[in-house]
Recover the amino acids of this structure.
């Protein structure tokens, strides 16, 4: 069984999310993402739910780990159990014209075929009428820190794979956090690339 599905993985994610120091630091990263969120949001692969709990009313998360889902629904969060093999990233359980934003935070790096997954999800978001996509990706040091990561995704990868202009979405913002310099990610584990794509009208 892949580690992302196990009880042990869920317990570790929840343990880390409840650590007071981690929660304090994580708060800055979450607020940085929230600056770009508009309206109800889909939190794709919501993990331990730190971001989902702060998203606007009407937002929903999807997650593959059943133990995380049980925990988050028990907290009153709207989380749907996701089967990527059955759904094929079509987001078929979501209604059209309800969600304004889709966030994929620390998700794409877990796929060997990350560009294909990203393009498929962008197509699905377009069908749902979602106007904004936010991608959050680890820098090089963060990518190396997790054995479940399969693709290192930086701005060059996204450009070369055609993700920055795809399915009617265009790049509107690209920045790094907490320091807006790409090179910092080579040395700092908790350094992120934030990519905002907006739908062209």
């Amino acid at each position: 069984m892949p580690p992302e599905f196990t009880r042990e993985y869920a317990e570790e994610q929840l343990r880390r999310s409840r650590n007071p120091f981690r929660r304090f630091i994580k708060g800055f990263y979450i607020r940085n993402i929230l600056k770009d969120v508009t309206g109800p949001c889909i939190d794709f692969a919501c993990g331990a739910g730190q971001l989902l709990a702060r998203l606007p009313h009407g937002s929903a998360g999807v997650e593959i780990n059943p133990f995380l889902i049980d925990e988050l629904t028990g907290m009153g969060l709207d989380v749907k159990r996701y089967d990527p093999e059955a759904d094929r990233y079509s987001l078929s359980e979501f209604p059209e014209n309800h969600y304004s934003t889709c966030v994929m935070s620390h998700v794409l790096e877990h796929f060997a075929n990350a560009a294909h997954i990203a393009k498929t999800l962008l197509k699905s978001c377009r069908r749902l009428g979602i106007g904004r996509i936010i991608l959050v990706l680890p820098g090089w040091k963060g990518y190396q820190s997790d054995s479940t990561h399969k693709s290192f995704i930086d701005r060059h990868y996204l450009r070369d794979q055609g993700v920055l202009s795809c399915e009617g979405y265009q790049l509107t913002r690209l920045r790094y956090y907490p320091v807006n310099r790409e090179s910092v990610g080579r040395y700092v584990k908790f350094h992120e690339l934030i990519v905002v794509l907006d739908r062209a009208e």
